[in-house]
From TrEMBL:
The lineage of its organism: Bacteria, Pseudomonadati, Bacteroidota, Cytophagia, Cytophagales. It comes from Algoriphagus confluentis. The chain crosses the membrane at residues 6-25. This is DUF1573 domain-containing protein. Keywords: Membrane, Transmembrane, Transmembrane helix. Coiled coil: none annotated. It comes from the Bacteria. InterPro entries: DUF1573 (IPR011467), Ig-like_fold (IPR013783). The keyword Nucleus does not apply.
Length: 132
């Protein structure tokens, strides 16, 4: 009877270790996106100015990083990103254009969806268009 008990106990401990190692491996080998700047300041703009910003990011994880989608808080903000896989510790960037329509201060939100462990990631850019 003791042998069966020890065998079952050993199997439970072994299965627990396998379960923990499997989940830990997913965390270690998952890509992780890291942005150089999460809030960009475009400063003071004029209506005729071309307003854009390049968000630079790096894959800090141990798996291929892919950006699936980039959404914005309004139609006046247009993202352009590369959906190819980014290797381990490689850098890339994507551009976000702002079509100046209104005057005053603005804050635009960009949400980046990827296979990163931090997804979704929130970015912002801010600025001011004078009322002249």
């Amino acid at each position: 009877m003791k042998q069966i008990f020890y065998f079952l106990l050993t199997m439970c401990v072994f299965m627990s270790i396998v379960w923990i190692a499997r989940d830990f491996g997913k965390l270690i080998f998952q890509p992780r996106i890291e942005f150089e700047v999460k809030r960009a300041d475009l400063d003071t703009l004029k209506i005729q100015d071309e307003a854009y910003f390049y968000f630079v990011y790096k894959n800090k994880g141990f798996g291929g990083l892919q950006i699936y989608e980039v959404t914005t808080s309004c139609g006046c903000t247009v993202p352009d990103w590369n959906s190819d896989f980014l290797g381990i510790f490689e850098k890339d960037s994507f551009r976000v254009d702002y079509n100046i329509e209104n005057k005053g201060y603005f804050i635009k939100e960009i949400i980046v969806y990827s296979n990163s462990s931090t997804s979704p990631d929130k970015l912002e850019f801010v600025g001011y268009v004078p009322f002249e």
